[in-house]
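REQUEST FORM: STRUCTURE PREDICTION
Request ID: SP-0412
Submitted by: Lab K.M.
Chain count: 1
Length (residues): 200
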Amino acid sequence: MKVKKQHRKKKYLHKLNRKRLNRKQRNTGTVPSEIIKEAWDHKKSTYKNLTDMGLANDPNKIIKIPNFKQEKIKQAKVIVNKGEIENIDEETITTVPIKKEVAEKLEKVAKAPRERRFMLPKGQVEFLTYLLDKYGHDYKAMEKDRKNYYQETWKQLRAKIKTFMGIPKQYGEYLQARGLLDKEPDEEELKKQAKALVED
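STATUS: Completed
RESULT:
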């Protein structure tokens, strides 16, 4: 007697967009770096492209975690062979990448100084400018101000004002609004401000 095969009824899934799914699976993603984009060869695989540029596809394979057990085995082999080291395993073939300038450019970009984008919130700037207008650099008087709702200590206020003075855009606007940029710097005033900032 012949065994009857059981066929599972195939259902068409209306909710699946096969075209989009295939495109998503084949897509390698967009490369945000312009340097890599220029050197990329679409005929080669991702692994081959990265190795040609001197970059790592998998950092775990490039920078290996030291294995304590393997090191002990090597030491035992050295002792057994009485100092004769087998260099067969340790032979590492160093290949110079074809497009090594890509890695050098990326390194240069990573080391380049970045523009400081840190800005204080508008409310905090208003509070600090109010304190500076009213008290100058007398931080102990600022501490006792009625608008110091969060009961910040004079040291905390001093640190915030230092941060505010370290942001050229916001501090520049403050100085310009008060007309302090056009004025000739008064040496005594500058000394007083420096002393107030350094003071503990």
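NOTES: The two ends are 100 Å apart (CA to CA).
Reviewed by: T.R.
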